[in-house]
Amino acid sequence: QVQLVESGGGLVQPGGSLRLSCAASGSIFSIASMGWYRQAPGKQRELVARFTNGGSINYADSVKGRFTISRDNAKNTVYLQMNSLKPEDTAVYYCNAFLRGVVGTGGYWGQGTQVTVSS
Predict the structure, then answer these.
(1) Is 74 left (phi over 0), alpha (psi -120 to 50) or beta?
(2) Which of 19, 58, 90, 106 is buried most, with the most CB atoms less than 10 Å from its CB?
(3) Phi and psi of 75, rounded to 5°?
(4) Which residues contact 107 (CB under 8 A, 6 or more apart)?
(5) Are 93 and 111 contacting, i.e. CB atoms less than 8 angstroms apart?
(6) What's the CA gap between 34 and 107, in Å, rounded?
(7) What sign results for the dihedral spanned by CA atoms 60, 64, 69, 70?
(8) What's the CA gap between 88 and 98, in Å, rounded?
(9) pLDDT tens-digit readout, 23-34
């Protein structure tokens, strides 16, 4: 069984920083792509940043220059460093991975972590 566990969310003032972590665990053979999405109240879930199958990185235009995604392949972990946070970054942040495991190949989601940017 595969699990994605996020951590690092919280309340931060505008202009502040947070670092999110997502660790994939279980019987995993390989991870094709992994990254972060977010969903604000009343809005659809959207891509924030992710590593693609080819190893490149995609960022949403709204976070370019402020957020940085990184990974530790040995730990099956991906991080999201969020700087210069704005109130519009407030959302539940979800980790997503497309991977090959013992039970087959497919996409997985974490449970989500709340990020609130407010003074």
Answers:
(1) alpha
(2) 90
(3) -105, 5
(4) 96, 97, 98
(5) no
(6) 9
(7) positive
(8) 27
(9) 999 999 999 999
